[in-house]
Amino acid sequence: MNTFLFNTMDFAQSWSAEALLEYIHPEMHVLVIPLMANDGWIADILAFNDEYSANEQYSETFSRLGIPENHIQVADIYELSRDVLVRRIRECDVVCLVSDNTEYAINMLEDFGLIEILHWYEGILIGVGECVKILSHTYESDTDRELHYGVSRYHDVYVYPGFERSLRDYEHIIRYLEEKGDQVIILDIHGGVCITDQQIEVLGDAFIASEKDLDTLYQLYEEEYLGI
Q1: How far apart are CA 126 and CA 17, in angstroms?
Q2: Which of 13, 55, 78, 114 has the most CB atoms at less than 10 Å from its CB?
Q3: What is the pLDDT of residues 39-54, one digit of tens each?
Q4: Angle 214-226/167-180 helices, nearest 10 degrees?
């Protein structure tokens, strides 16, 4: 099972192309599932329909990888039954989940009964935005700071998405390294990670930090705090 993790849908770039094209080929079929949060289900439907004409952003990414337009579907989760959605997932070679809200995304997957389906999915699964977190075995909720179970596409590695070199980012990474002592894969805006059964490959500007990097992180945090 191959899993890619990215910050944004604009991931078909020179820094990721070599790794992506090793796995994604023109004859494949792609299903994109947006799990974007809004206020209430009516607002969700309206937002999805308003954006549907702009959903070329989803297909464009895969078109740049050589996938024909008629091989790319964007799932309207408000119109599809669970059975149809599951069938489409199983028929596709690549499934891409994208969300701007961790809790909303995992709740939608639970409501549609897709967590187990995606866990055992044998194709290429791509997590974008907040879906990076929920594809892990466990993830820390932004609301209650508690650990929750995710899709379990990857284990024993902590991935921190959306890194912007802010005080919040440095605080979170430092706290994790101080408490856990493990390595953390940090996804910069032009960075990603490919996780297979055999290896973990960081892409672009993504990098790995560990306990030995704490002194540097302390210094960067202080410089950000002082506005240096």
Answers
A1: 14
A2: 114
A3: 444 444 445 455 544 4
A4: 150
Give the amino acid at 204: G
Which residue do the tokens 């952003």 mark? 57
Residue given tokens 């796995």 in the structure block: 23
pTM of the model: 0.89
Query: Which class for 22: exposed (0-12), middle (13-18), buried (19 or more C-beta within 10 A)?
Result: exposed
CA distance 26 to 9: 18
Q: Which residue, among 9, 1, 29, 220, has the nearest Cα to 127 in the 3D structure?
A: 9
**95: part of which helix (H) or strand (E)?**
strand 94-99
Among residues 154, 171, 155, which one has the least CA distance to residue 163?
A: 171
Q: How far apart are CA 90 and CA 144, in angstroms?
A: 34
Write the DSSP string, 97-158: EEES-HHHHHHHHHHTT-HHHHHS--SEEEEEETHHHHTBSEEE-TTT--EEE---SB-S-E
Q: Tokens in use for 16?
A: 């990721």
Which amino acid is residue 20, in one-letter code?
L
Bigger pLDDT: 200 or 228?
200
